[in-house]
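Researcher: Going back to the complex we discussed earlier. I've cleaned up the inputs and rechecked each line, so this should be the final set. Can you rerun the prediction on the complete assembly and write out the structure?
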Amino acid sequence: MPADLPGNPGLPDLRYIRELARVAKNYDLGEVEIESGDHRILIRRGGQGGAPVVVAAAAAPAPAPAKLEPAPAPAVVAEVEADYITSPFVGTFYRSSTPESPSFVEVGGTVQVGQTLCIVEAMKLFNELEAEFPCVIEEVLVENAQPVEYGARLFKVRKL
Amino acid sequence: MSKKEIRKVLVANRGEIALRVIRACHELGIRTVAVHSSIDEHALHTRFADEAVCIGPGPATQSYLNIPNILAAAELSGADAIHPGYGFLSERADFAEIVGRCGMTFIGPGAQHMRVMGDKIEARACAVRAGVPILPGTGLLADGEEALEEATRIGFPVILKASAGGGGRGMKIVRDPAKLIQTLETAQAEAEASFGCGDMYMERYIDSPRHVEIQVVADRHGGVVHLLERECSIQRRHQKVVEEAPCSVLSESVRKAMCEAAVGLCKAIDYYSLGTVEFLLDGDQFYFMEMNTRVQVEHCVTEMITGVDLVQEQIRLAMGGRLDHLDRHHAARGHSIECRINAEDPVTFGPRPGTITALHFPGGFGVRIDSHVYQGYKVSPYYDSMLAKVIVHAADRDRAIRRMRRTLGECVIEGISTNLPLHRWLFKQEAFVSGKYDTHFLEASMDPEAVLREVDPYT
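Model: Rerun complete. Updated structure for the full complex:
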């Protein structure tokens, strides 16, 4: 079984939805529906090329898609604004450079481009992870000294 | 070499070979760790293994070839050995070395063996020292002038090969002396681009050869034994499509000489683990081509006729075990044939990724399927197009061919294009059935219309 890793299993990956919306727009698709695991995602583009409408629902029991009328956008909530910083490495997640040092970042703190966020250690190699965009740390999703795999969500952030 | 227990194996591969290794480990009571790219999140090897770790995105260079992430996954999961499968990192000497330096066991030969056999010019020199026949040829070619001189000595046609090539890649045939120098320059540039090394050598080209290879198994105490031959002459684009064991045209004396040559080569380099010594067979003459220092795709046909579980033995030998029960003369029990079912156009051989919408694998007496696909499986364009190995075993070649015809007829894969029609067509060809074919047979004799009629043989 895959290692139980952090992230929010209750919600569909928002980057994924964004990507789907992009695909729907680029190929001028009226509707995209995808079901995988616990999620069923239906994207319907309304009227004169307006913003895509995203409806995310639990997959089972599958609701009849016909009921999901293309409504004016409100299904897109604040969650879409959130972003995640994921691990490009496999290794052990550390919030500070030594057990005694303060954490690189704290919840609520603002981070600049290039600022160190954490360390992912593997085979005695300390890989520093740096911010690629300015953001506010909203949540630290992994406990200190826990193993992380590639793509594991480490921080929930708000882009600035 | 003292005994080194293996309790947990990280399988640094994907697809059917990852499943093959995981199955072998579980039967041996060894725990397993799968690694996978984010695209392979739902692949079977991640489910069959005791643990799974995502090591990177889709492209193999960032996942299945990502040595730091693979080693980190091994460290995190507490694996004490790594099995490389075939392809990917299986013949990377530097990887084998690093695995050892990290205190883990690399399930395969030593880095030195991979290095010498990975350099095709050095491998030829090794064969000569071991008294193994090689084709008339050269070492590293300095320039076009030398090439022309050598080609005149060897006799046209000649084949130019990249020293860093192998497995059918980086080769050019030259029949016309006037074209040699220009072809050499093109080949050097191509080899430089593909392998990062433009070194070329030359061999006499045989027009109608068969590809016959010997399976060897060796321990770390000097014990080497052969497990007979495999015949792999049905190829497209120099890639094997059908393999069988034993070879139907090998006389007992040639078989004996070929097996002794393969064992001799292994002894000459103190080889250990599984290995395959590939030969070109021209009538009753055979010539060393290359040695593969890993488990082969087609190892299953050898397993069927010898009853030896090669992957389990490979793991046992990696723990420092001796040949023991394998150290005997192996005689073929019946005949086995393997068809590689690929997601590709059956006529042009172009890859055809997509989603499998319906799947039925054959069964019945003497049928073995090694596959990682399932209904709904998405064949990714990132990786090899092989979907399944369909293997049959029967008392003799004639019965094995009948069994394979029956088996191919039962096989259903819908939603994507596969080479099943090509296999169905092939098993009706008189040349194949009678065993009169060479490595060019498939591409030279294929009748596209007849193959396409086999797409749905029941309509």
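Model: Worth noting: Confidence is low (pLDDT under 50) at residues 1-8, 47-80 of chain A.
Researcher: Good, that matches what I expected from the previous run.
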